[in-house]
Amino acid sequence: MIPFWVVMKFLIFSIFVIFKLAPAESYSIDDHLIKTILVRAHNQLRREVQPQASNMKEISWSTSLQLLADYKVKDCKSSSLSLDYNGLTYGYASRLIKDITEPSITTFLTSVEEWFDSGQYYNMYDNECGYTPRVCENYVQVAWANSSQIGCAYNYCTIRNYESNEYYGVLILCLYYSAMDGDLPYISGDGCSHCPESAPYCNQGLCASATATDRPSDTPYSSNASVYKYNAWYLLVLLMIMYMFGKLY
Ligand SMILES: *[C@@H]1O[C@H](CO)[C@@H](O)[C@H](O)[C@H]1NC(C)=O
Ligand SMILES: *[C@@H]1O[C@H](CO)[C@@H](O)[C@H](O)[C@H]1NC(C)=O
To answer: Which distant-in-sequence residues (6+ apart) come within 8 Å of 33 by Cβ?
Structure first.
């Protein structure tokens, strides 16, 4: 028979753990497939810019950018992002998809495509936008040659527009490092003909920091995240057992 106080301690501890650990960013993108698809879509579209780019870097997933995006997307204010973080500036692209209850792989994919397609309003010869500047900025950031890392997040949001209409939907946010800075997004020319020193290899028209065989995958950091998660659960179970048997108060 398990003593009553052990059961009580277990219950109290469980409640504590649930409230302490159930994070507000429980919508965080955990799915490896979604991360891979976001990275691949970016790289594919970056290969297809017109005119062709000579210094376009290959993009990979960054867990620290993802964590920052999880945090930024919490307040649903995509338009007032302050993107200075530890002295570094990150770029962003965002999209609110109305009236959907659950984002799917297609939702993420079409967001990247929509940002890229807004390039039709952008004129690279005079660096001007034939539409609301923010619309072209999504394209310029996706096609920003020097960006080599992304991290994305989503949240369920109600957003009021300037006519006070309210929209409910899913807000998708991707952060980029390094950020666009108002200059032209890339140098046109033959693919990989102007690769920077930090990304000297060529991967099908994109400047890569490692050769294809050196590169573990499109999402080099994602496996470590699950290792940390596993360790955290292990530690918790251990703490819970210690607590139940009166070693902790
Ligand atoms: C290019 O990106 C790197 C980080 O990937 C950054 O350190 C560097 O300052 C950037 N260069 C320019 C010209 O923005
Ligand atoms: C991820 O883990 C591998 C080994 O499993 C290690 O070499 C690599 O440095 C780790 N990456 C990060 C970002 O911690």
So the answer is: 105
